[in-house]
Amino acid sequence: MRQLKLIWDFRGPDALKIAEHHVIHLKEFIAIKNTQLNITGVEKLSDLHCIAFMVVNESEMKPIRDALKPHRGQVYNP
Q1: CA-closest candidate to residue 59, choices 28, 29, 37, 31
Q2: Residue 78 confidence (pLDDT)
Q3: CB count, 10 Å around CB of 54?
Q4: What is the pLDDT of residue 28?
Q5: Across-strand partners of 11?
Q6: d(Cα 6, Cα 40) in Å, to the nearest integer?
Q7: Angle made by CA atoms 14, 16, 18, in degrees to the nearest 5
């Protein structure tokens, strides 16, 4: 089954802290909704741009996307 990476972008001098905080809420969502995967994380793209992400199975993507409103997504390649 194909896995998708849902991405939230954060920009500015506090981007890393905000992305790390956002992951806390993503993990809470995973626990409440009991999603099939439990893959989250933060990536620092530059000093002023970080992302928080959550990986989901394609079959779960639409309701999760509608609930959490990620900024973008891509196919996940571990």
Answers
A1: 37
A2: 85
A3: 27
A4: 97
A5: 49
A6: 9
A7: 70
SS3 category, 73: strand
Where do the domains of the chain lie? 3-61
CA distance 62 to 10: 22
Cβ count near 53 (within 10 Å): 22
Half-sphere exposure of 25 (CA within 13 A, CB side): 10
For 4-41, write each residue's pLDDT tens digit. 999 999 999 999 999 999 999 999 999 999 999 999 99
Give tens-digit pLDDT for 42-76: 999 999 999 999 999 999 999 999 999 999 999 99
> What contacts 72, CB < 8 A, 6 or more positions away?
7, 9
Interior CA angle at 19 toward 43 and 38, to 5°?
75
**Beta strands 49-57 and 72-75, pairing class:** unpaired
